[in-house]
Design goal:
The complex is a heterodimer of chains A (426) and B (188).
Chain A: H1 2-17, E1 27-30, E2 36-40, H2 53-63, E3 67-69, H3 87-92, E4 97-105, E5 111-119, E6 124-133, H4 138-154, E7 163-170, E8 173-180, E9 187-192, E10 196-201, E11 207-212, E12 219-224, E13 230-234, E14 240-245, E15 251-256, E16 263-268, E17 276-277, E18 285-290, E19 296-301, E20 308-313, E21 320-321, E22 329-334, E23 340-347, E24 350-357, E25 363-365, E26 373-377, E27 383-390, E28 393-400, E29 406-409, E30 415-421
Parallel strand pairs in A: 2-3, 2-4
Antiparallel strand pairs in A: 1-29, 4-5, 5-6, 7-8, 7-30, 8-9, 10-11, 11-12, 12-13, 14-15, 15-16, 16-17, 18-19, 19-20, 20-21, 22-23, 23-24, 24-25, 26-27, 27-28, 28-29
Chain B: H1 12-16, H2 35-38, H3 65-71, E1 81-83, H4 96-108, E2 114-119, H5 126-146, E3 154-160, H6 171-177, E4 179-184
Parallel strand pairs in B: 2-3
Antiparallel strand pairs in B: 1-4, 2-4
The chains are: A mainly beta (426), B alpha+beta (188).
């Protein structure tokens, strides 16, 4: 009960601090049975921060679908990272893992959080770290703590400190927004009376490319998050759309109709140099995406009569067909490890997200709604964010790469679409 | 099992603030003062004549005959939309006279510039739909050029599924959204 009250207080504090007027609400609709219980003891001294770090850490870990935060009874004296751990006692509380820590105020007004992670089952410490943060960055610090805990327990990097971008439509107004991966701290980059589609994060996370229709036709822009400036990168005669970043952030693949039709071109991201056409067909070639090793560009083409996924060397060259099952396979997204391709497939009029194992060619459809689109891998490859329509309204949802964990991210007062998961921030 | 509500929705009104301010209303042109009733008390205005001015009223300018033709509802040039069947990109015969009228206009008005916006229904990938809309607008452009319009007079673009004419989610709405729209410079 106390935890609940504290949680609600955190929520109220967040409301007061929020910069945007609406935020994502994340609901785990199918958490699955395999969640590992973890005890996160409230950090001694964290009340002074004004943001309950451990509540955010717990929420982050639960949202991964891999953990369940166990209730921790009031302990006296409250244990910290320096308290010796009685593994048997925590095992009897049914915890598989334990996080103990403390927060102290520094003379310059900042705070320092120190914590340790323990594997209760194996009776072994998993590591300790300290972060220094300002009051304004308490949420970011909590996400860093959650990332550390997640990585120590699962062996994979956490994505709680990453950001997402998406487009919100309210009536005739469109907003390109960015937010923390948990939907908090949302703010808009661009507000327009014309549509905005296809946002994509640059590999270092400092720039977002997107398509805006503000000139009554599609034009590709790059928005610099640091100084909030934006530049036109493709505004050729005709349509300019479907931007994709090369893994080194220097090149942007785009789709232009300047030569007639819709063909894939490469541009220097800084706007220098000339456009280089790399696809050559009388069909629609669109939705380019680089493989994470930069060697391939996956794309959608209807050169065979129906839209299918193909790939070609990223410098151009002979395309190979990648998808074969079904008559409508679009929006290819290679996974961060390059082993899997997510794409949208049409099954009996329903648009769903499928995963293709690139080594054994196995296809698995991992969503079950009617209008799923724009899949986007988390940078650790664990989850896929996508847009869907529920009750006539656009919402974001997320599904684990094995299809077992699904989340809905409803949004107050608007249609949400075109999600893009940002990269790891070092 | 308890579902996990991780965040909550913030109170919309409270946080709208400056980020949500509406555009100030257009300041309409100041009204012309009426001298017969609005003179300052004590000010002697007798004998003062208003200066002769060459008034220009842009709102009543007739415009060229060509401009009027584009807007005249009885002219085929006022017809600006071409609709398509599902997965079709060719212009149906019923639109042939419409295209011919616009081609003739472009031939006779070499300075006229046109934008053709191709559109699709809402189903499928947004970016692939940009491609499909482009296929529609390119098709209209090609016909106009074959009928004598010059290539540099026309820009064919695509709005994909982003600008539906009808917001519905059935075939009657979709059939209105699969279209090409013709705009002349000044209209886009």
């Amino acid at each position: 009960m106390l935890n609940l009250v504290r949680f609600l207080l955190v929520i109220i504090a967040l409301l007061a601090a929020a910069q945007a007027r609406a935020q994502l609400e994340i609901i785990v609709t199918d958490p699955g049975a395999q969640r590992s219980p973890i005890a996160i003891v409230p950090f001694a001294g964290e009340n002074a921060v004004g943001t309950t770090l451990t509540a955010i850490v717990r929420a982050d870990l639960e949202r991964s679908g891999l953990f369940r935060g166990g209730e921790v009874p009031p302990l006296s004296p409250a244990p910290t990272e320096n308290t010796p751990v009685n593994y048997g006692e925590w095992r009897s509380r049914l915890a598989d893992a334990l996080v103990l820590g403390s927060v102290v105020g520094l003379p310059d007004g900042r705070f320092e959080v120190k914590f340790r992670v323990y594997d209760i089952v194996k009776q072994a410490p998993l590591g300790a770290i300290a972060y220094i943060f300002t009051k304004d960055n308490a949420r970011a610090a909590a996400h860093r703590v959650a990332d550390f805990v997640y990585e120590r327990i699962t062996g994979e990097k956490g994505v709680f400190s990453t950001m997402i971008a998406y487009v919100v439509r309210r009536g005739t107004t469109f907003e390109l927004q960015i937010a923390d991966a948990d939907g908090e701290r949302a703010q808009y980059l661009l507000r327009s009376n014309e549509p905005i589609i296809s946002p994509v994060w640059s590999p270092e996370g400092q720039r977002v490319a997107y398509v805006s229709f503000e000139s009554k036709k599609p034009v590709v822009y790059v928005h610099h998050l640091g100084d909030r400036k934006r530049q036109v990168v493709a505004s050729f005669k005709g349509s300019n759309s479907a931007p994709a970043w090369s893994p080194d952030g220097k090149t942007i693949a785009v789709v232009l109709s300047v030569d007639g039709g819709s063909q894939i071109f490469l541009l220097n991201a800084d706007g220098s140099g000339a456009r280089r056409r790399i696809s050559n067909s009388a069909s629609i070639d669109t939705e380019p995406r680089y493989s994470s090793d930069g060697k391939w560009i996956y794309f959608t083409s209807d050169r065979g009569g129906s839209p299918q996924v193909y790939r070609m060397p990223s410098t151009g060259g002979e395309p190979q067909r990648v998808t074969f099952e079904g008559s409508y396979n679009v929006s290819p997204r290679p996974s961060p490890d390059g082993r899997v391709l997510a794409y949208v497939t049409r099954n009996a009029g329903k648009f769903q997200v499928a995963l293709l194992d690139l080594s054994n060619r196995q296809v698995q459809v991992i969503t079950d709604s009617d209008r799923d689109e724009s899949p986007s891998f988390a940078p650790n490859g664990r989850m896929i964010l996508l847009a869907t329509v529920i009750g006539g309204r656009g919402v974001l949802s997320a599904v684990s790469a094995d299809g077992r964990i699904k989340q809905r991210l409803p949004f107050a007062g608007g249609d949400v679409r075109e999600p893009a998961w940002g990269p790891f921030i070092e | 099992m308890r579902s996990i509500v991780i965040a909550t929705v913030c109170a919309a009104g409270l946080l709208i603030g400056a980020a949500c301010s509406t555009t100030p209303e257009d300041q309409s042109a100041a009204k012309v003062e009426d001298k017969s009733t609005g003179g300052k008390p004590g000010a002697d205005t007798r004998g003062v004549q208003p200066p002769k001015v060459a008034a220009v009223d842009l709102t009543k300018q007739p415009g060229s005959a060509a401009d009027r033709m584009l807007k005249d509802p009885s002219s085929p040039l006022s017809k600006r939309s071409i609709y398509y069947e599902l997965d079709k990109f060719d212009v149906r015969d019923e639109y042939r006279s419409l295209i011919e009228a616009h081609a003739k206009y472009l031939r006779e008005n070499p300075n006229a510039r046109m934008m053709i916006q191709g559109n699709t229904d809402e189903r499928g990938s947004r970016e692939y739909n940009v491609g499909l809309g482009q296929r529609r607008s390119d098709g209209v452009k090609k016909m106009l050029v074959l009928l004598g319009a010059r290539e540099n007079q026309i820009e064919s673009v695509s709005l994909g599924e982003e600008k539906p004419q009808s917001d519905g989610h059935d075939e009657s709405a979709w059939s209105k959204n699969r279209r090409s729209d013709i705009l002349y410079s000044g209209e886009y």
